[in-house]
Write a structure and sequence with these properties.
Chain lengths: ~350, ~90
C-alpha cells in the first residue's frame, strides 16, 4: 500500500513538471513583466553591447522600471551571446529547471525530518501552488520571482538540521547579495542574517556586507541620474490609516485567493492553533526573519508613491510566493505528525 | 481531560479534515492539468507547420501596423530582434 501511495504522489508531481515544461515548450512568452522588463532590458544590453546607458535614460521605457537591478537582464544577455542571437523562448527552459530544482530541494529538506512518502505528499502540495506553477512555466515564465524562491530554499537547505559554521553564514550572505541584484525585494532576505544563531557582531557584519551591492547599485542610479518611476512619500496620519486599512484588506483578500492558494492559508491558520513543536531554527531564525520581511513589505506599501490599492492587488500574490518557503516549512513541521498518524492509520487499515 | 487538551484535539480533527480536503482539491486540479498537457501535445502533433508555430527562431513576419507611436515601434522592433523573419 505504501508503494502505491508513493507511486501516486510521484506521478502527481510528474504531472506538474510536465505541465510547466509543456507550458514553455508550446506557448510563447506571455508575462507582460517578462516582455516589458526582463527580456526588454536584456535586449538593451544586447543592442548597446554593454551597460545600457541610453536605454536607462530613455523616457519612453519608464514602464520598465529603469532603476531595477540589472542582474537578471545581464544573465539573459549572456545567454543571448551564448546562443549567438536573441532568443527569449529558449531562455524560458530555465524556468521548469528552476521549478524542478525547487521541488528537489524541498524533498531533500523534508527527508531530513521524515520518510519518503510523507516528504512526497508535502512536496506535491507545494508543487501545486499556482504562483509556483505559473512562474515555473505557465503564464509567468520569464519573471524573476522564482529565482528568489529558489534562493530561499537554498538557505533552508544549508541551514535545516545541519551543523552551523561561519563558511555557511558567508555563503548565505553571498546568496543574499545575488538575490538583491535579481530584484529589489531580494535584499529583504538579509533579514535572515540578522537572526542567525551566531554572535551579534558577526550577524551585524554579515548583514552590513550583504547590503553592499544594493547600496552600490542605488549609488549608480543616483550618480547616472537614471529616472525613477516611484519614490517614497511621507503620508499624513489620515492617509497612513487609510493605507493601513487598504493593506490589511489586500492581505486578507490574497490569503483567501482560492485560485492561487486553494485552502492552504486556512490550514496555516489552523496549524498555528494546534500544539506541535517546531524546530529551534524555525522558531529562533526563520520565523522572526519572515515577520521582519513581511513588515518591510508593509512599509513599502505604506510609503510608496503608488496607488496603494492597485499596488497591493497587483503584487501581494508575488510577495507571498517569494516568502512561501519559510511559511511552508512551518506548515510542514506543524502538520507532519498529524499527517503521519492519519496515513499510518489509513495504510494499516486501523 | 483539561479544556486545553480538548480544544487542541478539536483543532487537530478539523485541521486533518481540511488537510484531506486540500489534497482532494489538488488532485482534482492535477486532473485538469493532465487534460491541458494532453491538449497541448495533441495540438502540437496535429499542427501542419510545427516549426513556424512552435519553434521561436522562425516566426512569420509581423505585419507592420500603421499609426504606432515611437514607443510602440520600438517594442515591435525589440520583439522581432534576433528572429528569422520568414515571409
Amino acid at each position: 500500500m505504501q508503494k502505491i501511495v508513493t507511486v501516486l504522489f510521484l506521478l502527481l508531481i510528474f504531472i506538474n513538471i510536465s505541465y510547466v515544461t509543456t507550458g514553455v515548450l508550446f506557448h510563447p512568452v506571455q508575462s507582460m513583466d517578462a516582455i516589458g522588463i526582463w527580456f526588454f532590458k536584456a535586449k538593451a544590453f544586447y543592442i548597446e553591447q554593454g551597460f545600457p546607458n541610453n536605454f536607462l535614460h530613455n523616457a519612453n521605457y519608464a514602464y520598465s522600471h529603469q532603476r531595477y537591478p540589472l542582474g537578471l537582464p545581464f544573465i539573459i544577455f549572456l545567454f543571448y551571446r551564448l546562443m549567438g542571437g536573441v532568443n527569449d523562448h529558449s531562455f524560458l527552459i530555465l524556468y521548469p529547471i528552476s521549478y524542478c530544482l525547487i521541488l528537489l530541494l524541498v524533498y531533500k529538506i523534508f527527508r531530513r525530518h521524515t520518510n519518503t512518502i510523507y516528504s512526497l505528499i508535502f512536496v506535491y502540495i507545494y508543487s501545486m501552488f499556482s504562483p509556483l506553477i505559473a512562474a515555473g512555466g505557465r503564464i509567468l515564465a520569464g519573471n524573476a520571482d522564482i529565482f528568489l524562491v529558489l534562493v530561499e530554499w537554498i538557505f533552508i537547505y544549508i541551514l535545516y538540521k545541519k551543523k552551523f559554521s561561519i563558511a555557511k553564514c558567508i555563503l548565505i550572505m553571498i546568496l543574499v547579495m545575488i538575490a538583491s541584484q535579481i530584484k529589489f525585494e531580494g535584499i529583504f532576505l538579509s533579514g535572515i542574517l540578522l537572526f542567525l544563531p551566531v554572535s551579534r557582531k558577526l550577524r551585524i557584519s554579515l548583514f552590513c556586507v550583504s547590503l553592499t551591492p544594493i547600496i552600490l547599485w542605488t549609488w549608480v542610479t543616483i550618480a547616472f541620474k537614471i529616472p525613477t518611476d516611484t519614490h517614497p512619500i511621507v503620508p499624513s496620519l489620515f492617509l497612513a490609516i487609510e493605507r493601513m486599512a487598504i493593506i490589511a484588506f489586500g492581505i486578507i483578500r490574497e490569503l483567501g485567493n482560492i485560485n492561487n492558494w486553494y485552502i492552504f492559508w486556512v490550514l496555516v491558520l489552523l496549524s498555528v492553533l494546534i500544539k506541535q513543536k517546531i524546530s529551534p531554527l524555525l522558531k529562533q531564525t526563520l520565523l522572526p526573519a519572515y515577520f521582519l520581511m513581511m513588515f518591510l513589505y508593509v512599509l513599502v506599501y505604506l510609503f510608496a508613491s503608488n496607488n496603494t490599492n492597485e499596488y497591493i492587488s497587483s503584487s501581494f500574490d508575488r510577495v507571498l510566493f517569494q516568502q512561501s518557503a519559510l511559511v511552508f516549512l512551518f506548515f510542514f513541521e506543524k502538520m507532519i505528525t498529524p499527517t503521519r498518524e492519519l496515513f499510518d492509520r489509513l495504510l494499516k487499515g486501523k | 481531560m483539561s479544556i486545553g487538551i480538548k480544544a487542541n484535539s478539536i483543532f487537530l480533527i478539523i485541521t486533518i479534515r481540511v488537510f484531506i480536503l486540500l489534497l482532494l482539491i489538488l488532485m482534482l486540479r492535477s486532473f485538469i492539468y493532465t487534460k491541458r498537457i494532453l491538449s497541448d501535445i495533441v495540438k502540437f502533433s496535429n499542427s501542419n507547420s510545427k516549426v513556424e508555430d512552435f519553434l521561436p527562431y522562425i516566426k512569420p513576419c509581423l505585419t507592420e501596423i500603421q499609426g504606432l507611436t515611437d514607443e510602440e515601434k520600438h517594442i515591435l522592433n525589440y520583439r522581432s530582434l534576433g528572429t528569422i523573419c520568414k515571409k
